[in-house]
């Protein structure tokens, strides 16, 4: 009986993870989808194509895509409050146990990207007392996955983020897709606006504050942030852009519900830019 309950809870976690990640995608990646199609994660030493992209970046652009880098690491911390998560899963075909939804949802991703086609991501998802660890490596059209440090298995490669199994995409390269509408809108919204000189992990950066209106202009609004939630959410954020490369190296987002309580929080950071990272097949 205990084994059956654990299987049921594991399936429930999968429902919550899928719904929660779809939530984030609806907020961030939808805007990027409106732009040019680019690989979500992309290998080896800096390629000719990568160098060409860097050379042809808009000269006066305030922000450019991480696609211009040869490699980088990233970290993503995401939290959706328990109440918001309960609303999100209320209409799901497979109901999420109240105790799981009530615990809230936290996901932490550590990843590395080597352009143009290599990515390694480790994801830890937590619903209070239950945790799930996923790891995925993607190299070109090959991919491998494993759970909780188990055996590697050959997986289906896709254009989506390895961090969440190749089904949805919240990778930095997708959020800030080269030629995507998010970058275009941010370049427009932030031009001429004040910024504060700051330091992010040793990199000189420009720090911009995004109010709800600017966020909606860049990322398409927050109405669809939490599927099933009838209340619109206002999202504010802070964006750091590297002074030398003009790549967004950190973004913090907070969405509040109609009562003013935080419903969604995300912190994404890029580090080790162009540091000669290598990603090899696990098998």
SSE topology sketch:
Elements: H1 2-33, H2 48-55, E1 71-80, H3 82-89, H4 98-102, E2 105-114, E3 118-127, E4 130-139, E5 142-147, E6 153-155, H5 172-175, H6 181-190, E7 196-200, E8 203-210, H7 212-219, E9 234-242, E10 248-256, E11 262-271
Antiparallel strand pairs: 1-2, 1-11, 2-3, 3-4, 4-5, 5-6, 7-8, 8-9, 9-10, 10-11
Short description:
By secondary structure, the chain is α+β, with helices and mostly antiparallel strands. It is built from seven helices and eleven strands.
What does this structure look like?
- By secondary structure, the protein is an alpha+beta fold.
- It has one domain.
- It has seven helices and eleven strands.
- An eleven-stranded antiparallel β-sheet has the order 6-5-4-3-2-1-11-10-9-8-7.
- Strand 3 and strand 4 form a beta hairpin.
- Helix 6 runs antiparallel to helix 7.
- It is globular and about 50 Å long.
- The two termini are 36 Å apart.
- About 24% of the residues have low confidence.
């Amino acid at each position: 009986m205990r084994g059956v309950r654990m299987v049921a809870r594991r399936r429930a976690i999968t429902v919550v993870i899928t719904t929660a990640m779809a939530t984030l995608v609806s907020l961030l990646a939808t805007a990027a989808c409106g732009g040019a199609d680019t690989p979500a994660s992309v290998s080896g030493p800096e390629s000719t194509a990568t160098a060409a992209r860097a050379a042809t970046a808009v000269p006066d652009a305030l922000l450019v895509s991480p696609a211009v880098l040869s490699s980088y690491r990233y970290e993503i911390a995401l939290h959706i409050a328990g109440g918001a998560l309960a609303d999100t899963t209320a209409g799901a075909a497979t109901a999420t146990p109240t105790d799981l939804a009530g615990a809230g949802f936290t996901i932490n991703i550590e990843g590395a990207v080597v352009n143009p086609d290599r990515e390694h991501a480790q994801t830890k998802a937590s619903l209070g007392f239950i945790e799930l660890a996923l790891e995925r490596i993607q190299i070109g059209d090959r991919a491998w996955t494993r759970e909780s440090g188990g055996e590697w298995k050959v997986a289906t490669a896709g254009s989506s983020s390895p961090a969440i199994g190749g089904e949805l995409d919240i990778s930095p390269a997708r959020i800030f897709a080269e030629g995507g509408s998010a970058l275009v809108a941010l370049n427009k919204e932030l031009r001429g606006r004040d910024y504060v000189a700051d330091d992010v992990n040793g990199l000189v950066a420009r720090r911009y504050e995004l109010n709800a209106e600017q966020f909606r202009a860049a990322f398409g609004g927050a109405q669809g942030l939490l599927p099933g939630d009838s209340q619109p959410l206002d999202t504010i954020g802070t964006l750091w852009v590297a002074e030398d490369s003009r790549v967004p190296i950190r973004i913090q987002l907070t969405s509040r519900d109609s009562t003013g309580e935080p419903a969604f929080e995300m912190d994404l950071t890029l580090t080790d830019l162009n540091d000669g990272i290598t990603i090899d097949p696990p098998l």
